[in-house]
Amino acid sequence: MLIDRLIDKIKETDNPSVAGLDTCVDYLPDETREKCETLYDAAKYITDFNFALIDALKDVVPAVKVQVAYYEMYGVEGMRAFSDTLAYARQHGLFTIADVKRNDIGSTASAYSNAYLGETVLEGSAVTPFESDFITVNGYLGTDGVKPFVEDCKKNDRGIFVLVKTSNPSGGELQDRLMDNGKPLYENMAELVDGWGEALRGKYGYSSVGAVVGATHRAQAEAIRKAHPHLFFLIPGYGAQGGKADDLAVCFRDGIGGIVNSSRAILTAYRKPQYAGKAFDEAARLAAIAMREDINKCIK
Predict the structure, then answer these.
(1) Which of 45, 73, 158, 281 could bridge to 117 as Cys pair (CB 3.0-4.6 Å)?
(2) What is the Cα Rg of the chain in Å?
(3) In the annotation, is 278 catalytic?
(4) How far is it, in rounded angstroms, from Cα 139 to Cα 189?
(5) What is the Cα–Cα distance from 70 to 203, expressed in whole angstroms?
(6) What's the count of helices (H) and strands (E) in the chain, helices before strands?
(7) What is the reported pLDDT for 240?
(8) Cα-based angle 152, 144, 6 (whole degrees, multiple of 5)
(9) Cα distance between residue 190 and residue 165, in whole Å
(10) What is the pTM (predicted TM-score) of this model?
(11) What is the pLDDT of residue 297?
(12) Is 66 helix (H, G, I), strand (E, B) or coil?
């Protein structure tokens, strides 16, 4: 089961964190950024940057999360960088999370799922468009939109993280609204996600159908964890968005139960005073190790 292998990797690296490769030209070192005059240039140097980071982090973190929006803005060349980054990470033993937040009506959701979790059939041959182990999914379209993703998780041993309680400040405008049953919308979503993933629970008791639960909402995260012990969390919001290790500790039980994302703090660590003079990949490695230690002291 995919979720078991991810947890095994977390245990092996002693690190419940994922490096977010939300890479854009602005994050590149000055001498590289100055070379980005075309979309092709931008994609090339972003790919090189990502590959160097993966080389530096592959024995420190268990996974990378690649946010597609940062690649889409560079057009077709950017999507090639996205695809190449996923493939390179997998080749080097890392789990890959494609942060794509896809969903739509059932037939369109199936096409999205084929792209990121399944296969596309061409003249009798099946090809894998993107090498992602997990993807993020917007579950707020309901069951018919999520079902194709869940079916591909079962068929292809893949996983999804469904948006439940997001880390952005205004998420509560909708997610905290009380429904007819007296529960906030995010709690109703957590119940649905738990049900969707019931058949995909592994040896640790967690499901490959997990939940996105932000580190910036401690009370809500604690409530979701208490009510849904089988949900594995993808936890954004640590670091630059204000989430602290103490806040996200409620997401874990016995040191497992989630994986914490950090993007800018790792990507641009070389710009921080404590890493002055370090190459960007060396600084990223040191930042990832510091993050690991910060989280582990709070969850164990």
Answers:
(1) 158
(2) 19
(3) no
(4) 8
(5) 35
(6) 13, 10
(7) 63
(8) 35
(9) 9
(10) 0.96
(11) 94
(12) strand
Catalytic residue among 9, 11, 44, 101: 101
Q: Which residue in 150, 171, 162 sits closest to 193, CA to CA?
A: 162
Span 191-243, pLDDT tens digits:
999 999 999 999 999 999 999 999 888 899 999 999 999 999 999 988 766 66
Label residues 175-209 b or e (16+ Cβ within 10 Å = b).
beeeeeeeebbbbbbbbbbbebbeebbbebebbbb
- Would you call 213 helix, strand, or coil by DSSP? strand
Strands (E) located in 181-221: 209-213
Dihedral sign for Cα 253, 258, 263, 266, please. positive
First to last CA, the chain: 25
- For every residue of 225-269, DSSP letters joined together read HHH-TTPPEEE--BSTTSB-HHHHGGG-BTTBSEEEEE-HHHHTG
For residues 196 and 168, what is the distance between their CA atoms, to the nearest angstrom? Answer: 25
Residue ranges of the chain with per-residue pLDDT less than 50: none
Nearest to 161 by CA among 93, 261, 281, 283: 261
For residue 17, how many C-alpha atoms fall within 13 Å in the half-sphere facing its CB?
34
CB 33: neighbour CB atoms within 10 A? 16
